[in-house]
Amino acid sequence: MTQQSLARRPGLVDRWPIAVALLVVAGTVTVIALVHDQARLFGPAVATMAGIYLMAYALGRPWTAWLAFAILSAVVTGLHLLARLLSLPVDPAVGMTLLLVPLWMWAVARRRFTSAGTFSVQTAGMVGFGAITLLTAATQPQVGTAVAGVGFLAHGIWDAYHYRLNLVVSRSWAQFCAVVDLGVGIALIIVATG
């Protein structure tokens, strides 16, 4: 036997993040079809995704992306509820974008900037995905939905980059997030142009 044949190939068990992501995409596409203001609902998710990476980066433990997902999903859901129920004067997209700043400062406080290349990439992600999120809130709903879709697709590329280099987040998170981002991004663009 050759060394190559002895190397373990990734099996179905190793691809569980893809299976879970496909379920999430199916549920999300259903929500996209049922709601009428996709930009308001999905725009803040672009900053949320950047925040997940920043939180995992600040903690220095790739597996914490899953924890960051739970925490930041609760935050964005809370912002949506406050905006809807209490007429909160801050748009959830703006709130999630503003949250990126303390997450970035937390990474600085933890001296994560010593890895200059990775720190620069995470900083660029914060600025870029934050700008996309703000753009979803500042444009008319149809354009905002398309911008959110582009933001999701761009984040799918971001996930693939981090998966390939095995940086910042666990590979299971990068796989999961990439599949969700690509599926949801395509769905948002189809709705925006339809």
What does this structure look like?
This protein starts with a helix and ends with a helix. It has 194 residues and is mainly alpha-helical. The model has no long low-confidence stretch (mean pLDDT 91). The protein is built from eight helices and no strands. The longest helix has 25 residues, at 141-165. The protein is 80% helix and 0% strand. α3 runs antiparallel to α4 and α7 runs antiparallel to α8 (171-193).
List keywords for this structure.
0% strand, 194 residues, globular, mainly alpha
Quick summary of this structure?
With 194 residues, the chain is mainly alpha-helical. The chain has helices spanning 3-6, 16-34, 38-59, 64-85, 92-109, 116-138, 141-165, 171-193.
Helix share bin = over 70%
Give the N-to-C terminal Cα separation. 55 Å
**What is the chain-wise order of helices and strands?**
HHHHHHHH
Rg, rounded, reads 17 Å
Report the principal-axis shape.
globular
- The chain-level structural class is mainly alpha
Count of alpha and pi helical runs: 8
Instruction: Look at the structure and give the mean pLDDT.
Output: 91
| Main sheet characteristics | none
| Proportion of residues in β-strands | under 5%
Quantity of strands, as a count: 0
Query: Uncertain regions: pLDDT < 50 for 5+ in a row?
Result: none
Spell out the blueprint of helices and strands.
Blueprint: H1 3-6, H2 16-34, H3 38-59, H4 64-85, H5 92-109, H6 116-138, H7 141-165, H8 171-193
Helix pairs in contact: 2-8, 3-4, 3-5, 3-6, 3-7, 5-6, 6-7, 7-8
